[in-house]
Amino acid sequence: MGSGASANLHSDSMEAADSSILRDKDFGKFQFGCEHYQRRCKIRAPCCNLIFPCRHCHNDAANSLSDPKERHDLVRQNVKQVVCSICQTEQEVAQFCSNCGVNMGEYFCDICKFFDDDTSKEQFHCDDCGICRVGGRDKFFHCQNCGACYTMGLRNKHSCIENSTKNSCPVCYEYLFDSVKAAHVMKCGHTMHIVCFKKMINENQYRCPICSKSMLDMSHSWQLLDLEVIIKFWICYI
Q1: Which of left, alpha, beta for 153 (phi over 0: left; psi -120 to 50: alpha)?
Q2: Domain locations in the chain as residue ranges
Q3: What angle do CA 183, 190, 57 make, to 5 degrees?
Q4: Phi, psi of 214 (to 5 degrees)
Q5: Full-model pTM
Q6: Which of 27, 89, 108, 183 sits at a 20 to 30 Å CA gap from 195?
Q7: b/e map of 207-224 (b: 16 or more CB within 10 Å)?
Q8: Which CATH superfamily does the domain covering 126-220 fall into?
Q9: Span 49-95, pLDDT tens digits
């Protein structure tokens, strides 16, 4: 065996040894992940048996396939295997790596198979929604009629529409229920993304695209219009 082969063998052995070293649970925190989440593991998608940083990365790739029949979303609860980003060990879903002991996600939900090191989002699992939400459990309530989590400020102050968020945003058509974008509940009870709502307002569109009811309290605007009509009438009369 040549010296080059010996060197490679030594290098491979060192890598194998390094992969089996027990790490501090915080090792590598905030150093791994993707554009969606900071986490120290990747997931194996059971639907296509490929490894992705997260379900959103999977969905972006799967829904970009040229054949529409092959496009699909990953059901998060179906994930069974993850790969530690520190030691590359594939294993069953768990918060701590079975090989190196690192914490693969400071926030971990065994139901959603969800990992995230950035706990400033105040993640929590809503049993009624069946998925994890962000924003703090104490700041939200689950409306049984609407079938969604809303901020406490909307408790008893919103129009209920059954399964209101289990629809697509009427502006961008993205499914609202598990969207990572913040949603806005309008006076009529219909829901859209906040960014889409602001876009409509900026374009002077004030009616709900679903029911055509006003999205804002327009009473002040109507008063100004009435006043303008009265002023014009008196000017003409004088």
Answers
A1: alpha
A2: 3-120, 126-220
A3: 35
A4: -65, 135
A5: 0.77
A6: 108
A7: ebebeeebbeeeeeeeee
A8: Zinc/RING finger domain, C3HC4 (zinc finger) (3.30.40.10)
A9: 999 999 999 999 999 999 999 999 999 999 999 999 999 999 999 99
